[in-house]
Automatic annotation (TrEMBL):
Residues 125-227 form the NADH:quinone oxidoreductase/Mrp antiporter transmembrane domain. It is a multi-pass membrane protein. Keywords: Cell membrane, Membrane, Transmembrane, Transmembrane helix. PANTHER family: NA(+)_H(+) ANTIPORTER SUBUNIT D1, NADH DEHYDROGENASE. This is NADH/ubiquinone/plastoquinone (Complex I). It is found in: Cell membrane; Membrane. It comes from the Bacteria. Residues 66-106 form the NADH-Ubiquinone oxidoreductase (complex I) chain 5 N-terminal domain. The chain crosses the membrane at residues 6-22, 29-57, 77-95, 107-124, 130-148, 160-181, 201-224. InterPro entries: CPA3_Na-H_Antiporter_D (IPR050586), ND/Mrp_TM (IPR001750), Proton_antipo_N (IPR001516). Belongs to the CPA3 antiporters (TC 2.A.63) subunit D family. Signal peptide: none annotated. Pfam families: Proton_antipo_M, Proton_antipo_N.
Amino acid sequence: MIASYFVIIPLLSGFVLAMSGKRNKFAELVALITTSLLLFLSVLLFPLINASGTIFYQLSGWKVPYTISLVVDNLSAFVLFLVSLVAFFSTLYSIGYMRRFSSLSNYYGLLMLLIAGLNGVTITGDLFNLFVFMEVSLIATYALVAFQGEAEHYEAAFKYAILGSISSTLILFGIGCVYSATSSLTLMQISIKSAETPVLYLAYGFFLTGFGLKASMFPFHSWLPDA
């Protein structure tokens, strides 16, 4: 159950912030409590995993591969800790820096959406929901890039959105290739069924290019300075 908290808590906080209007102090408090709680939970994961092994959780009563499955091992727990740590200090810094803007509830709501997406990408157990969580985090990122509302910020967000759409399409093609080769989107089943076939090599190419664009890897980094 603890695995789901890393997605549910920031989503609920984002919803509360979206409904809070221009109550800036309240928005700062909610964001700080949320990121503090996520950081505390991420620290708790390590003794839990050491005691009981990898954590598996399904968000519905359906079975794999028809459910949203979350998997937390030592590596994903470490990434969750890093995401939570960066989110906590980003919130602390934002409390002073972002007060020059009036709509802080929108800013912190987008930040919570970004955190939920990043946490979901980290712990999801299948490619489809990895794609969904990735798009959730990217939508929040587009809005955050344009948040200051000036022409250059809109231009940077637009450029990022165009390249993000292209990269998402390439990743979706890669997921389609993996499914055609393995008949599964569940990461555990893919690791068992996968074999060296031309279709999977094509998927690797799509993934490398798509994720390279999103991560601004050379030579796909031209959008990063503006954003």
